[in-house]
Amino acid sequence: MADDAQHDIEFEADSGVSTTYPLQCSSLRKHAFVVIKGYPCKIIDITTSKTGKHGHAKICYIGIDIFTGRKYEDVSPTNHYVDVPNVSHAEFTVINIDGNYLSLMDDAGEKNENVKVPERELGDKIKAEFAEGKKLLVTILKAMGMEAAISYREAPKGGQ
Questions:
Q1: Are 75 and 119 within one domain?
Q2: In a domain, 5, yes or no
């Protein structure tokens, strides 16, 4: 099925850290994060149905996968719990581009060489500006053991 497509994102292990936490459906809000069909998504639309004759109110939420942009939808009773991904982002300095992978370094000097160059326009711009000799800072989004470059900027002169 098309919904079962694999992410083209690298996985990393974080020992002892949970990748998700439970949240009651009635607490979900637009622009919040939620796991839909196993993918970390940002909610773009949410509707609640009224309590039926023999059941609970239901919540219908539509989300966009934060890594691929694919749209997913799910329905749950408002009193049930859903998984919410622990999402973080950090900025890294690009120290090299080796094929389709970025060589990155954080402020503490730790290297990360597992992030793919983004596809399409963003990746093309990063490659072109790095080839021009510009010092670039890339923002890496991390969730559920996956990470991807989502934006970049030129490093300030004399700074990082």
A1: no
A2: no
Taking CA atoms, 21 is separated from 11, 84, 114, 130, in Å, by: 19, 5, 25, 38
- ∠ CA 155-87-43, nearest 5°, is 110
Which two three-digit tokens encode residue 144? 């559920």
- Residue 52's pLDDT band, with cuts at 50, 70 and 90, is confident
Among 8, 2, 73, CA closest to 37: 73
CA separation for the pair 21, 6 (Å, rounded) = 23
Integer Cα distance of 84 and 115 in angstroms: 23
- Of 67, 85, 103, the position where a domain reaches its end is 85
- Measure CA 59 to chain center: 23
pLDDT digits (tens, 9 = 90+) for 4-41: 444 555 444 445 568 999 999 999 999 999 999 999 99
Last residue of some domain: 85, 107, 133? 85
H-run or E-run covering 93 = strand 87-98
Domain that holds residue 48: 17-85
What CATH number is attached to the domain comprising 27?
2.30.30.30
Rounded to two decimals, the pTM is: 0.78
